[in-house]
Amino acid sequence: MAQDKVDNPFAPDSCLAAQSEGRRWLPYCDEAQALHAGLTQRTRTASIELAQLKKLLLDANDLSMWQFLSLSLAERSPYYASSQRKIALMDEIEATLNKDARADRFIALAMRVIRAHAVGNGPAENVIEDATLLLEGEKNPHLLEMLSSTLIKHTNVLMTLGDYQAAMLSLQTCEKASDAWGNPLMPQRCYNLARLTGREPAEFLQEVAKREEMLTCGRDLTPLCNLFRKTGHGKYLVSNAATD
């Protein structure tokens, strides 16, 4: 257990620490999750519920959970469809960061990618290099999930700009982060969530499909393999493309 405390980057009583160590979390964690779920679906009372969520978690001294849920809402809540609101939330989170804290370095990278997309001046710089450094020796599932999601978003930004070489490198780094997580379902998610239009270069499309096939069919994940072949990126496999 002492080793868990050394390896866990979150405060001992945080909802995130409890999940990482397989412990039951406290009732306020369920309340926070319920508020988060509601905020992903509606905007009319969002400002009130956002204030409730922040007060709930900060009163519980669980800053990490607030940071994580806020980053999730920046991407998933219709309230943050506005770039101005999204940027304001990034400013709010940034003010709470300790740049030397392990978890906060992952949060800072995620924020850079979200902010760059919201501002619209091109992709954030040095994302893949910084992600590779963060990945070294990391085993915490929450941090690896955040890193994977950050890289998926970065990939999609790069693809819209036509930088397919960097996009593939971002996908490969996402796969490494997801593999390090230890959940066999996760690596294929990197390629599955790449927003392909079919207008990308054939070589890029085929490489995405090849990797996704290996991570679903090649790992005997039958339901995911079937989806990949029937309705997913399987149509971009070389064998299928040749028959189109």
The helix fraction, in percent, is 55-70%
User: Oligomeric state of the chains?
Assistant: single chain
Low-confidence stretches: 1-6
- The best one-word shape is globular
Beta content: under 5%
> Which whole number gives the mean pLDDT?
91
Number of helix segments?
14
Main beta sheet, described?
none
Characterization of the model:
This protein is mostly helical. Helices cover 67% and strands 0% of the residues. It has 14 helices and no strands. The longest helix is centred in the middle third of the chain and has 20 residues. The N terminus is likely disordered.
Structural descriptors:
about 0% strand; about 240 residues; mainly alpha; globular; single chain
Write a concise synopsis of the structure shown.
By secondary structure, the chain is mainly α. It has 14 helices and no strands.
Write the layout of secondary structure elements.
Layout: H1 2-7, H2 15-20, H3 27-39, H4 46-59, H5 63-76, H6 83-94, H7 102-119, H8 127-135, H9 141-160, H10 164-181, H11 187-192, H12 202-216, H13 222-230, H14 238-241
Helix pairs in contact: 3-4, 5-6, 5-7, 6-7, 7-8, 7-9, 8-9, 8-10, 9-10
